[in-house]
């Protein structure tokens, strides 16, 4: 296990540098004239331009600018947005509500996906199974950019079951509709993986043994089979996180939830380069760390992984 | 992977597909969407760029089936014409991703060793960046010099989405190259180029095609998402994502400018995903 952890850690460090390099290079390649963008339509005096160029190291070469970016990222200093706000502070202010939203989304997705997945695996080929398969196909096909505004229109504005927008101090119920929309982006894959995994496990020898011992079918399915079937579903969490992050940008923008995605969406609209790059870099790091944890968890649960 | 039977695999797959209702349904849908993208004037006589403010937010009528949007533009005409940019971005970016994935995957799988190590780490790194996050950084500023942004978004999506295809191709090539028929061909004196293009490639392409078909659907959705966020198409481009973004603000007054582009987008993505699903079922010997 130790060797696996070390190898996986080294891999992650490499990926971290590579991925942040990609993000920075993309931003650098697109850099037009950030100082003019800051000033908007107003002219910028040579004095101000010189000071700002100095402060943001704009006249430095690519490697030097990358060095400053990396140093800032590693010391937790994300710099200032084009509007002059501290990006680290914005991020820590926006974080809690996004965490709440995505945690709720994960719970909703897992509850529905696992229950429906097990159910359709038991009644394979039946009506429920076929209709859930059709549902997952639909879920895969409807992007969040469609789902979020339409759900808001139908359930919040017309039916008025949920509030249409929320604040930073949103309660769980306020966040339920956005969380369900967000959950839809990951539910389909989770459901399909659960179903396949349960179907395979139902044929396993230990299930026959458990049945032979006289255990109730309910106990066999929901305790013995489910526990073994969830291992592949766990690895999905890492991948899902990327989907949730992307989805959160849209969902938070639509439902006016002042979280990370909301700020990012505003940064994109305002062409605020430092803000977008700062937020994206942190999100990429979170994504990598969570994937590392998930991989280690997976290796701990399934010994075969460690000895590949 | 039983790619050993690939010669007949394509034939088998076709026999399978011919009897698959889902394949025909999604195929007809895809054909219709393609036709709409190439000759939109076949479907509507209205000009999507001519908008009369007097018609603002008017409901559906016999002249404008889906009504008018906030700017007084014909929603049906704009939705139909929106197909072109969406498909153009989707097809071209998938083509680019496919070519990149094919080259990287084949090189990594065929050469192995150092080449494989470097290319596989590169793939890992690209997978470490969630697509949408990288795309917003990349295409946001890039789109201005190219006006409508079709080129920028295509380039962005193409450069960021080749990883899955490369991985699939790599493992398929590794499986195929160790097969007996490759050894036999080599012993018969076939050169590396002949080995790769006559023997390994045809036998490892099946799963690659499936990944690409599904990628087509997701890239179309990604374009709409980027356009919605303001980091995609812009200028005088007509895009479902842009339509949704604008209509959302007036959804309570007029729902149809929001609903119809959404429906078209979802149906298009669904058609491509279903087509990919059907092709996968036909090509996967385990499912027969």
UniProtKB/TrEMBL annotation, chain A:
Signal peptide: none annotated. Residues 95-298 form the ABC transmembrane type-1 domain. Keywords: Cell membrane, Membrane, Transmembrane, Transmembrane helix, Transport. Its main location: membrane. Gene3D superfamilies: MetI-like. It is found in: Cell membrane. It comes from the Bacteria. The lineage of its organism: Bacteria, Bacillati, Actinomycetota, Actinomycetes, Micromonosporales. SUPFAM superfamilies: MetI-like. Belongs to the binding-protein-dependent transport system permease family. The chain crosses the membrane at residues 12-29, 101-122, 134-155, 175-193, 229-255, 275-301. This is Dipeptide-transport integral membrane protein ABC transporter DppB. It is a multi-pass membrane protein. It holds the Pfam family BPD_transp_1_N. The keyword Heme does not apply. It comes from Actinoplanes couchii.
TrEMBL record, chain B:
The keyword Ribonucleoprotein does not apply. Gene3D superfamilies: MetI-like. Keywords: Cell membrane, Membrane, Transmembrane, Transmembrane helix, Transport. Its main location: membrane. It is a multi-pass membrane protein. The chain crosses the membrane at residues 21-43, 91-113, 125-143, 149-169, 200-222, 258-279. InterPro entries: BP-dependent_transpt_permease (IPR050366), MetI-like (IPR000515), MetI-like_sf (IPR035906), OppC_N (IPR025966). The keyword Aminoacyl-tRNA synthetase does not apply. Residues 83-276 form the ABC transmembrane type-1 domain. PROSITE patterns: ABC_TM1. It is found in: Cell membrane. It holds the Pfam family BPD_transp_1. PANTHER family: ABC TRANSPORTER PERMEASE PROTEIN, OLIGOPEPTIDE TRANSPORT SYSTEM PERMEASE PROTEIN APPC. Belongs to the binding-protein-dependent transport system permease family. This is ABC transporter permease.
